[in-house]
Automatic annotation (TrEMBL), chain A:
It comes from Cohnella zeiphila. Keywords: Membrane, Transmembrane, Transmembrane helix. This is Spore germination protein. One of its GO terms (cellular component) is membrane. The keyword Plastid does not apply.
From TrEMBL, chain B:
One of its GO terms (cellular component) is membrane. Keywords: Germination, Lipoprotein, Membrane, Palmitate, Signal. NCBIfam families: spore_ger_x_C. It is a lipid-anchor. This is Ger(X)C family spore germination protein. Belongs to the GerABKC lipoprotein family. Coiled coil: none annotated. One of its GO terms (biological process) is spore germination. Its main location: membrane. It comes from Cohnella zeiphila.
Amino acid sequence: MNRRGKSNASNDNRPPVQETDAFDLEPSQPISFDLDENERTFQDLFRHCSDIVFRDLEVQGRTKLLIMFTDGMVNSDILQSAVLKPLLYEGLPQGLGMIDSIAEMCGRELMSILQVKKSSDVFEIADLILRGHTAFLADGENEALLADVSSFETRSIEESTNEATLRGARESFTELLRTNTTLLRRIIVTPKLKLEAYRVGKLTNTEVVVAYIEGSVAEPVLKEVRDRVRRIRLEGVLESGYIEEAIEDTNYSPFPQMMSSERPDAVAAGLLEGKVAILTNGTPNALIVPMTFWDGLQAPDDYFERFMYVTLNRWIRYAFAIFSVLFPSIYIALTSFHPEMVPPKLMLSISALREKSPFPTVIEVFIMEFMFEGLREAGIRLPKQIGPLVSIVGALVIGQAAVQAGIISAPIVIVVSAAGISSFVIPRYRFGIPLRMLRFPLLILTGMFGLFGIALGLITILVHLIHLKPFGTAYLSPVTPIMFGRIKKVFVRFPHKRAMKANPIREGDSP
Amino acid sequence: MKRIIKLGIVLFFVITCTTGCWNLTEPDELAFITAAGMDAAPDGRIEISSQIAVPSAIDVQQNQSSIGKSFLVVSAMGKNVMDAGRTMQGKLSRSLFYEHRQAIIFGQSMAQRGVGDMLDMFVRNPKSEIRSTVAVVKDGTAKDLLNIKPKFDPFSGLAILRVQSSVGSTPYFYRHFLSDALNEGMTPLVPAFHIVGKNEFACVGAAMLDNTADLKLKGFLNAEQSFLAYWMIGRQSTISVTSVVDRDGGLATIRLGSLKSRIRVILTDSGKPAIEVRLSGGGSVIENNSNLDPSKGPDRRIIEQKLSDSTRQKVEQLIDQVQHQYKTDVFGFGDHIHRRYPQRWKTLKRDWDQSFSKLPVSVQVTLHVKDPGQSNSAMKRFI
């Protein structure tokens, strides 16, 4: 574990930053004036790509056009009615000979397509064809016209399954980047919401959008994010997780350094706080940078319900988070190393229940923890109908049967289940993971050193957390380093009216 | 740098595996001692009895009384406590665990011999629990008391502690006992228990252990006297007082809650100290068999007056008896003199028992009926 939490972005071993935003290509190759040569070039490029369609057209017997598109990605209706019909039946409009460029004329006069683009670079054309554009090449022109008629099957906007909330919108992001940016735009309606586009991944050429609100965002963080995204040199970027691991400060910490969310309102909330969001094409999970420890313990609907309930809930969550890390270790430390600290009646009950068990306490806890983790993991992958059933029933039945057989003692089952369930109280699943993982080293240390081991383990974890500074923000701020104004907000979620008093809106403020 | 880290990790594991787990003791390797008893044995030795909990007999799901005893008593003799303890360990397959000991019980024979010598172990041994309660067995041995299975609790050690709270006293812990014993101005008053029949015990008052004479047993106070004495020292939280309140001999009982005791030292004209004891308390009338009606003002004042008078008489009798029969200062008068007139105390303390018996004491008791109860006149009037 990189305990110092040194960021990857130290100045000595950085590769030099490229100037352009686009991904690294081979040097560009211009298209020629001859249509046949172009056709051969593209046929070569797309050899064995059975879904790229080449369509030759002769418009009114004179002009030859080559249309290229990817089958399955274009809206054939629009293509046929807006492009082919006019060209084939009506032909080019009057006064043809004087027109300079067929492509340009098609774009302006004939095609009622919204987004058109011109290009003379082979690879750029190929890239856009693969994104669903249709390319029109004319004989005698060295420019191609690319029209966006893309339409392909995507998942519709559904309710988020992983981040369920009681209150708040139910839309969640889908795999298409444009849908996601639209959802964001619909929430934050201001030109100050900036969406910067990048492409990452040598083979996947995944589109990535860095979103922020100009004026609210912390400039150093934004600059850091831009730098790091540009520096990503991966072959394929399938999910935002690849980007996350590529740009996070240290891979060797169990704690996640950026939040990921499927919900547009969570992302919007982060943006309003001055954070930067990274949306990736192909995944509904957006990354929110930077993240603090306390963000991980918040639920998306913390700000939607009334403040008293939310504050109470928050305290319960903090208690359960600590509980889930410490409970098995404390049980071992107290019953095996310091029985004098347990009240006498409880100690006698525990030792009564432990009489039949053949294993030492530490081994028992490890066995039960192992089983619990296995059952939990199995429950995720099973089909929806039987998954939760198997994991819960399995845990209970196995635990009960083991207790009755005398293999495991009953307090162990209670302790492990309580700790396991309390880790599910944490609303963000990925924040419960480091706490669960940390339980094991703590168990080992406790088994060796008792309460002293717990102290050692906790100090190590704390030191690690203090040194963790994702993107320049201390992970435990505002508690450490202490920010007196903000620290109250960690413990109490103040009602929104209070924010109104703090930032009164004056006449003449721009939106 | 990396090599040092790797070496460090390897060394860490080597250290922990070769020397580790040295402090880890499973609960089933421990014999939990819940009470310790001390009796006198011939040749100047002592006999230690330990009441050890047997966890497997405590089935937490079933009723305890249906199984039988959930503890066992082991005894051994020795020159002092730890010596006997060593002998006792040889009889047990699990190591003795003193930290959950609830009670330390002295048999009468031991108390008569004097327990002062044996006090040290309970304080010095780091594994000893100083928050145990202390008790003396009247006319019996501690071993027999430990063998009794109480009605509600699993062990008599625990029962002894709880009986003290249920009669209204504050439990007497070893810590208090020690500080009272080391105090030159008072004699500790230890709760006394008596074994009734074959299988019961009862709290029968208090024992006076003389701390000027190696904590030898000086005498016993009966239950009522012990409650009054505790009231004076501030160890009693509730007490019920009954007395005749009207001319026909009708009785009334009041349960006093907020008991206060103020002991003042005043100097008489001859320069000698005298004690003024002021006891006060307030409570509700819980039984009324008289002609008076506690809900009416004048009647209530009569009740208060009568009760206060009778209590005062009892306290005076108690102080008289203690001063002249037993001649030990269990009330802490010496302590109060020490605080108020430390110079005089220096001369007085040399022969305090003698001076104590000549000390003039005046008693004032003020009882206050705060609540007449749920009804007004006595039920017998309606019959």
